[in-house]
Amino acid sequence: MRFRLTPRETSFYDMFAASADNIVAGSKLLLELLGADTSARAEIAERMRAAEHAGDDATHAIFHQLNSSFITPFDREDIYSLASSLDDIMDFMEEAVDLVVLYNIEELPRGVEQQIEVLARAAELTAEAMPHLRTMENLTEYWIEVNRLENQADQIHRKLLAHLFNGKYDAIEVLKLKQIVDVLEEAADAFEHVANTVETIAVKES
Predict the structure, then answer these.
(1) Organism's domain of life (predicted)?
(2) Taking residues 30-43, what's their average pLDDT?
(3) Burial letters for 50-68: b for 16+ Cβ neighbours within 10 Å, e otherwise?
(4) What is the DSSP letter of 103?
(5) Range with the lowest mean pLDDT among 68-72, 115-119, 201-205?
(6) Other CB atoms closer than 10 Å to residue 8's CB: what's the count?
(7) Any residues with CB less than 8 A from the CB of 133 and at least 6 apart, and which?
(8) What is the mean pLDDT of residues 94-118?
(9) 3-state secondary structure of 105
(10) Which residue of 32, 58, 102, 143 could cross-link 19, Cys pair, CB 3.0 to 4.6 Å?
């Protein structure tokens, strides 16, 4: 790590950790959705909306701190990119839950549980990684594993699309379910964006 003579604003580390912890909470709500009766889904969606609002607040706090800090722990554009990508994850997860409720989906297609399990694992890894931004140590395995998970998510997504288009579902149902699995895939992509940003930061700071 480079030696610095100037002090740095350290509150960013805590805010990134809080944002990632909130994503873990969101991923648990996704897992809860899988086993819930249709009658319970609206309440889960309400809790997910609250988590998404908390994520927005965390992102705005980071941006406010960024705009008011003269010295930052790493490049401003990387702080902005990391905060935005974390926020994107929460947005996509909330959108997926909301669509399940709005479309009144009775049964999610086989394979969605695998998508959500990948997201839950990526959320755990991301939350574990954020505190390491302070030292930039022990992060390599994190971004390697998240990239592996994103590749796994791609494969699951392709299989889901093939399943949706096998003739079992009518056209309207296909459109609804495809939108849901596509949004879950976007969440996996957003986790990879976070990991790639962390790798960029670590390389710059080494």
Answers:
(1) Bacteria
(2) 94
(3) ebbebbeebbebbeebbee
(4) T
(5) 68-72
(6) 13
(7) 13, 16, 73, 139, 198, 201
(8) 96
(9) coil
(10) 58
Helix, strand, coil tally for the chain in percent (to 5): 80, 0, 20
Query: What b/e sequence results for 136-146 when a residue is b if at least 16 CB atoms lie within 10 Å of its CB, and e otherwise?
Result: beebeebbeeb
Dist CA 125 CA 64 (whole Å):
26
Q: What are phi and psi of 106, to 5 degrees?
A: -80, -45
Q: Which amino acid is at 147?
A: N
How is residue 37 written in tokens?
Answer: 């009766």
Place of tokens 């994190």: 142
**Length of the chain counted residue by residue:** 206
Residue type, 35: G
Whether 177 and 129 have beta carbons less than 8 Å apart is answered as no
CB 16 within 8 A of CB 86: yes
DSSP state of 38: G
Token readout for 196 is: 């790639």
Give me the half-sphere count of Cα atoms (radius 13 Å) on the Cβ side of residue 144: 4
**Alpha-carbon distance values, 183 to 31, 66, 95, 109, 132 (Å):** 15, 29, 7, 14, 29
Of 56, 48, 1, 59, the C-alpha closest to 25 is 48
Do residues 134 and 13 make contact, with C-beta atoms less than 8 angstroms apart?
A: yes
Taking the C-alpha atoms of residue 187 and residue 63, their distance in angstroms, rounded to an integer, is: 21
Question: Across residues 105-121, what is the average pLDDT?
Answer: 95
Question: Is the pLDDT confidence value at 70 over 70?
Answer: yes
